[in-house]
Every structure is written in C-alpha cells, then in structure tokens.
C-alpha cells in the first residue's frame, strides 16, 4: 500500500510568486531494508531525526522555495520487497513515475551496497531501453556516523557512482540536516539539467525534421 501525505499547508498554483514557472520533481527513494530511506526523507522534510519510522510506503509532497523558484517535490519513500528473488526489483510503474532516483545503502552493510548497485544497473538498463541515456541518480552512503562499523569504503561508493554516471554523497541522516538537503538539491539540479538537455535534443531533432521536409519536398518538385 502506498500512502500519500502532504507537508504543504495548502495547494499552490503552477506559477511561483515571481511568475517563474513552478518546478515539479518526482523523487523515488530506493535501497535495502533499514538503510535509512525514511530517516533521509523525513530529515529533508522536517529537519528532524526521530529514530524509528515504521515501514509504511509513502509518497510525500513538499513545497519549498529554492532561489527564485517554487519547487514541489513528490517523494516516494519505498519499501524493499522481503522475498530474496525480488531484491533489487524496481517496478516499471516506479520507473515511469520518477524524474530522479536516490539509492541509499548503509556504509555498515555490504549487502545493502550490493543491492544499491543492482538497482542502479536496473534503472540504467530500463531507462536506456526507453531511450533515456542519463536518468538522474544519486547514490547515498548513509550512517556515516558509524565509522567503527564501516564495511563499504568511500572509494567503492565513489567508483560505483563514477562508473554509472551518478552523483554520490556519504551522509549521516542521524547527525545532520545538511547532508539530506544537499542530496535533494543536487538531484533537483540533475533533473532540471536532464529536462533542458531533453528539450535541446528535441529541438535539434525538430530542426533536422524540418530540413529534411524542405529537402524532401524539393526532391519531389
Ligand atoms: N546511526 C545511524 N542510524 C541511522 C541513520 N539513519 C537511520 N538510522 C537508523 O536505522 C534504522 C532504519 O532506519 P529507517 O529510516 O527506518 O530505514 P529504512 O530504509 O526506511 O527502513 P525500511 O523502510 O524498514 O526498509 C532506524 O533505527 C534509524 O534510527 C544514520 O544516519 N545513523
């Protein structure tokens, strides 16, 4: 069951106050069990760390002003399927819904890193099949405060991100708000970049189409 929650006091229009169009971004938070997906999401939404979160799958909507823009995030805090054959599963529905992905693992849990790798590769593969070369993804190593229990080095995380064209951060949702903030803001930038490069690609395709229409017509004259 997916529960829809809103952190907005009221519904806002599609235009910001300064008449800048409102930016909307659907963010899917994925990762193994107990890596801190809810802790990261709730930290970003409320600035707080409350310790225990339950395991209800939720979609939160949250409006904030970033620079001169109003931004509306919809954040899907997913639950990892229990069955081992479904581990790493990212559904078609989730893929279609999301503009950007946050893949969380715990730096203390190597198997969660392996699952994040699997999910990352699946997203890249399915998006490529749909003609999208660069889906915005950020890999997040959480629980950085637990250094004495570290099982995944920073280099391994960074390398995986580099080799898959993803962003990378190590954070502690328990210790600071700043890490969560940077993750969501960086992903928003990536989403906006991917939208504008998508538009450019369509623009170039449009020019090519109109040129071939002109040349095509000439040939038939
Ligand atoms: N030390 C430490 N504990 C954390 C951190 N983030 C989350 N936790 C703890 O890890 C446990 C799991 O956190 P959740 O946010 O519920 O993890 P989740 O991935 O949403 O869990 P599920 O939805 O049940 O899969 C909780 O006990 C949190 O208090 C962190 O940065 N440091």
From TrEMBL:
GO molecular function, a single term: G protein activity
PROSITE patterns according to UniProt: RAB, RAS
Catalysed reaction equations from the record: GTP + H2O = GDP + phosphate + H(+)
One Pfam family recorded for the sequence: Ras
EC number of this enzyme: 3.6.5.2
Keywords: GTP-binding, Hydrolase, Nucleotide-binding
UniProt family annotation: Belongs to the small GTPase superfamily. Ras family.
Protein name: small monomeric GTPase
Naturally occurring in which organism (per UniProt): Pelusios castaneus
Organism lineage: Eukaryota, Metazoa, Chordata, Craniata, Vertebrata
């Amino acid at each position: 069951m997916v529960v829809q929650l809103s952190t907005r006091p009221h519904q806002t229009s599609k235009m910001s106050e300064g008449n800048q169009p409102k930016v909307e971004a659907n963010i899917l938070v994925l990762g193994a069990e107990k890596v801190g997906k809810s802790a990261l999401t709730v930290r970003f939404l409320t600035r707080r760390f409350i310790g225990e979160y339950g395991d209800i799958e939720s979609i939160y909507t949250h409006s904030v002003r970033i620079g001169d823009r109003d931004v509306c995030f919809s954040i899907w805090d997913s639950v990892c399927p229990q069955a081992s054959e479904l581990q790493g599963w990212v559904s078609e529905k989730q893929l279609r819904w999301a503009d950007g992905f946050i893949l969380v693992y715990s730096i203390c849990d190597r198997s969660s890193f392996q699952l994040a790798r699997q999910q990352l590769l699946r997203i890249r593969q399915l998006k490529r099949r749909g003609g999208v070369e660069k889906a915005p993804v950020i890999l997040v190593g959480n629980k950085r405060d637990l250094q004495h229990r570290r099982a995944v080095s920073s280099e391994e995380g960074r390398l995986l991100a580099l080799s898959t064209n993803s962003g990378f951060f190590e954070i502690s949702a328990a210790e600071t708000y700043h890490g969560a903030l940077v993750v969501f803001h960086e992903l928003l930038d990536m989403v906006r970049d991917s939208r504008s490069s998508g538009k450019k690609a369509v623009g170039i395709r449009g020019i090519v189409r109109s040129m071939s229409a002109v040349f095509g017509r000439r040939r038939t004259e």
